[in-house]
Design a protein that fits this description.
The protein is mostly helical. It is 72% helix and 0% strand. The protein has ten helices and no strands. The protein is globular.
């Protein structure tokens, strides 16, 4: 088994000015989109309106986000979570590592902006295009996670086992979000995520029925 790296996310180089400007532009586009969707609904919100509200050109919006659905679904968390995964102790079981990382990701999402987290989940349930794009985007994150999980487990990142395990985690995360949204976003999302991870780790045992 290969040893996991023990550096913390804080040890990674901070982004330069160019990257910070890109992040600021992405955040402005997202903020404009969220505000417009809140005001007039998802379908009525256009790229031209988003660009005007964010004070950028429509071409700039498309340069950062290929589709309107991407504006709703993407954030800056993926690199942070990958760094967090790689920072976990080398002796920690992969299942424990992924439980910690996924719980931390959920916590970060709600702490950063709970209203946006709730809007995303609501739109995933109500808008087929958002839900479909979410499924497509998981394949990109999945490839990155396969590399990191392969490092921790000592397996080939492209092996069937790593790919199945990784996509099972991401599929479980998506179904948890949909379940939470379909049930009025009631209860603690972190507790639901724990139930999901219990099923993935132990199967449909009586304890988690």
């Amino acid at each position: 088994m290969t040893a996991a790296r023990t550096s913390s996310p804080a040890d990674h180089p901070q982004p330069g000015l160019r990257e910070r400007k890109k992040t600021k532009t992405r955040e402005a586009i997202r903020a404009a989109t969220y505000a417009l969707v809140e005001e007039q609904g998802y379908d009525a919100t256009t790229i031209d309106q988003i660009a005007e509200r964010a004070e950028v050109s429509p071409s700039t919006v498309f340069r950062y986000f290929p589709t309107k659905e991407d504006i709703i679904l993407t954030d800056e968390q993926d690199p942070i979570l990958l760094a967090l995964l790689r920072s976990r102790p080398a002796h920690e079981a992969v299942a424990d590592t992924m439980r910690y990382v996924m719980r931390e990701g959920a916590r970060m999402g709600f702490d950063e902006d709970p209203d946006v987290a709730r809007m995303r989940t609501h739109l995933m349930v109500q808008v087929p295009a958002v839900r479909s794009r979410m499924m497509e985007s998981m394949s990109v994150l999945g490839r990155m996670l396969c590399v990191a999980i392969g490092e921790r487990s000592g397996r080939d990142p492209d092996s069937l086992e790593v790919r199945v395990y990784t996509m099972s985690l991401l599929g479980g995360l998506m179904e948890t979000a949909l379940y939470w949204g379909e049930h009025g976003q009631e209860g603690d999302f972190g507790a639901l995520l724990d139930r999901t991870l219990d099923v993935l780790e132990h199967g449909l045992s009586k304890e988690n029925s």
